[in-house]
Design a protein that fits this description.
Layout (H helix, E strand, L loop, with lengths): L2 H15 L8 H17 L14 H21 L4 H15 L2 H4 L10
Helix pairs in contact: 2-3
Length: about 110
């Protein structure tokens, strides 16, 4: 079992042990991802630029874990292979952002 499979199994066991799958429809999982992302964003509010706030590092890790857990649950609910989805998206982004145009640029692909 790969590390990712082990993590997914642990998440699903936690959910299933509590009979929470009944609440995990795509809409509510997507909402939960957004809510947890907002909680992560709040930890950076009123900080200087993009700095990492060391005093809030453990909270940042917890919120990031919540986001990732909900993403794994949503992928499971939608029957999506996380690995396949990520590889497909990277290939798509490679086409949108060819190195010769995108290297060192933060410009959106439509403006390259």
């Amino acid at each position: 079992m790969t590390d990712m499979e082990h993590v997914k199994a642990a998440i699903l066991k936690f959910r299933n042990d509590r009979n929470w799958a009944q609440f995990h429809n795509p809409k509510d999982l997507a909402i939960s991802i957004s809510l947890e992302a907002s909680e992560l964003l709040e930890l950076f509010q009123w900080s200087a630029g993009d700095c990492v706030r060391e005093e809030k590092h453990s909270e940042q890790v917890e919120e990031l874990a919540d986001i990732l857990i909900y993403c794994i649950l949503l992928a499971d609910t939608l029957n999506v292979s996380i690995e396949d989805a990520i590889i497909a998206k990277i290939k798509q982004n490679e086409e949108k952002y060819p190195i010769e145009k995108a290297f060192g640029a933060s410009t959106k692909y439509t403006d390259l």
